[in-house]
Amino acid sequence: NNMFPAMKSVSVNMEKNHRRIIVLTTVGNQGITKMDYVFASCDSAYLLEYGDSFINSVIKAGHKPRIHVVNPTTAAHTYMAEHLNCLWTAQNNAPDDRTFYSVARFLIVPTLLKENPDDRYMILDIDCVVNKKLTFPDESVGLFFRDPDSANPGNDWEREGMNIAAGIVYIGQGGLPFIKNVAAKIQASYMTVGNLWFTDQVMLYRESLEWEGNIYNFSDSYICWDFDRTDVHISTAKGALKRDKRYLELKKSYES
């Protein structure tokens, strides 16, 4: 049941011959050498549940959505073919595991940037809603730093990871080495301790300590997880808050 060989195989295939990356459409990107994307990655179930609100809110805010789908089902392929206002990639035969889905976005972005190094990526959760136009910082990297103890960590691993909220990560021009190193750290961690929750946050934090460039710090006025603020750029919900009336109403307002 060792999943790392599958992860490694996916990485090699994506980087060397793209046999497991299917570009379904590049509508809207032909002839453009630089693009700013609002990006998310998800499995088929999350795509069908949250795709409309993500795509429509991103477009309404004035941005280009891009989504990477892991292990797409027939229904997911149909959905992608019907939504040509979004740029798509899909990855087959990846580990069918929720913890892999949580880190997949950070494994694929280095490959996408190698193809088009001038592109910039605002990496978000698929279940978020973009309320207004986003700022793409001048810095090569942007992260959301926080006090880890404010998030009630259960152990040292969680405490380290909770220094970063991975619901928003920005990779701009010059940021490829950063996200490439994060991806390498994620895979190295999988080899030693397996695929654990908070792996993405731990490795983002560790790479931030080693990064010699400036890092843009997103504040809680930019993204909100609990709906205590209504003037934020991004609203999202986790756990029980996914059933919160305010989140459901906001999500529904962007569904087509």
Your description of this structure?
With 256 residues, this protein is of the alpha/beta class. Helices cover 40% and strands 18% of the residues. The protein has eight helices and eleven strands. The chain has an eight-stranded mixed beta sheet, with helices on both faces. The chain has a three-stranded mixed beta sheet with strand order 6-11-10. α4 (98-115) packs antiparallel against α6 (176-193) and α6 crosses α7. The protein is globular and about 45 Å long. 42% of the residues are buried.
Tell me the Rg in angstroms: 17 Å
Number of helices: 8
Silhouette: globular
Question: SSE order in H/E notation?
Answer: HEEHEHEHEEEHEHHEEEH
Low-confidence stretches: 1-31
The span between the termini is 40 Å
* β-strand number: 11
**Helical residues, percent:** 25-40%
Task: Give the DSSP E fraction (strand runs of 2 or more residues).
Answer: 15-25%
* Biggest sheet details: 8 strands, mixed
**Which strands sit side by side, in order, in the main sheet?**
1-4-3-2-5-8-7-9
Average per-residue pLDDT, rounded, comes to: 86
